[in-house]
């Protein structure tokens, strides 16, 4: 096994780790465009900024509102978004399917439906839905970025990166798009390029927790655990940041152990 192969496998593991770290931190959304607020309650706090207690309370509140009026597009989209935050992607998709039936020509609904399909693992249908939501003569940079994220998951990185750059032409220095571009390079094992884009993303005033945690992940994958913990600790509790980095260390140690065994097996065979 070559060093490049080992790095590539480690980077791919890192993409999976991103979800595990986000779950333990309660700091980021699985849906890269779930930034809307939840109707009702005492505030209009964005979904991605909620902690576990707030998410549970909002799920119950919005779920009740959805049961009363399942054809309300705003409530349905909000309910699907928060279900995704709770890891209930299949339920979120079912909600968005019903909303899409009631609003078949609404581009906002189509966009949310496509994102729900992607979160549930239905990548090709998600790609088709997102493209139907797009307006060719006035493309939406958010949809371009969402389409790129799906293409990355379909292992079509060059197409994905072209869309991210097109999105950045429309919305320069948008941190969510820069973050997606960085994670695209992570998926292919190019950690320095991933770090470059993520550092640029973090430097933007609008960068959210997800972007900073992605940078912490990429830095940690390169063995700079102290720096990764410092980045994560800028907004997480110190104990949580330390736990995330410890988790990353343990997974990388397992990866390295398997790589060493494979190298030994290859040497013995030759």
Mind sketching the topology for me?
Blueprint: H1 3-25, H2 52-68, H3 73-85, H4 89-102, H5 107-119, H6 123-133, H7 141-153, H8 157-170, H9 175-187, H10 191-202, H11 209-221, H12 225-232, H13 238-269
Helix pairs in contact: 1-11, 1-13, 2-3, 3-4, 3-5, 4-5, 5-6, 6-7, 7-8, 7-9, 8-9, 9-10, 9-11, 10-11, 11-12, 12-13
Describe this entry's structure for a reader.
It is a single chain. By secondary structure, this protein is an all-alpha fold. It contains 13 helices and no strands. Helix 7 packs antiparallel against helix 8 (157-170) and helix 8 packs antiparallel against helix 9.
Describe the sheet with the most strands: none
Number of helices: 13
Q: What average pLDDT do the residues reach?
A: 79
Query: In percent, how helical is the residue content?
Result: over 70%
Q: Gyration radius, to the nearest Å? A: 19 Å
Give the CA-CA distance, first to last residue.
12 Å
Globular, elongated, flat, extended or rod-shaped: what is the shape?
globular
Look at the helices and sheets and give the structural class: mainly alpha
Order of helices and strands: HHHHHHHHHHHHH
Poorly predicted runs: 1-37
- Please report the total strand number as a whole number: 0
Portion in strands: under 5%
């Amino acid at each position: 096994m070559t060093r490049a192969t080992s790095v590539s496998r480690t980077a791919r593991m890192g993409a999976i780790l991103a979800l595990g770290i986000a779950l333990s931190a309660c700091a980021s959304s699985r849906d890269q465009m779930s930034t809307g607020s939840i109707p009702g309650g005492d505030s209009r706090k964005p979904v991605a900024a909620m902690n576990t207690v707030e998410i549970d309370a909002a799920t119950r509140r919005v779920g009740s509102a959805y049961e009363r009026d399942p054809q309300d597009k705003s409530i349905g989209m909000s309910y699907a978004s928060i279900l995704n935050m709770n890891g209930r992607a299949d339920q979120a998709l079912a909600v968005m399917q019903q909303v899409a039936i009631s609003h078949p020509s609404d581009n906002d609904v189509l966009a949310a439906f496509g994102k729900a399909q992607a979160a549930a693992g239905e990548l090709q249908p998600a790609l088709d839905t997102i493209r139907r939501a797009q307006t060719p003569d006035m493309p939406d940079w958010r949809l371009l970025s969402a389409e790129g994220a799906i293409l990355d998951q379909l292992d079509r990185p060059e197409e994905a990166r072209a869309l991210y750059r097109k999105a950045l032409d429309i919305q320069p220095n948008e941190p969510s798009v820069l973050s997606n571009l960085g994670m695209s390079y992570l998926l292919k094992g190019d950690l320095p390029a991933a770090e470059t884009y993520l550092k640029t993303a973090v430097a933007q005033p609008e960068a959210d927790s997800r972007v900073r945690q992605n940078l912490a992940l990429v830095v940690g994958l390169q063995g700079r655990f102290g720096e990764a913990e410092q980045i994560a600790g800028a907004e997480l509790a110190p104990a949580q940041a330390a736990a995330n980095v410890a988790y990353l260390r343990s997974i990388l140690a397992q990866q390295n152990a398997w790589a060493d065994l494979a190298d030994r097996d290859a040497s013995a065979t030759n």
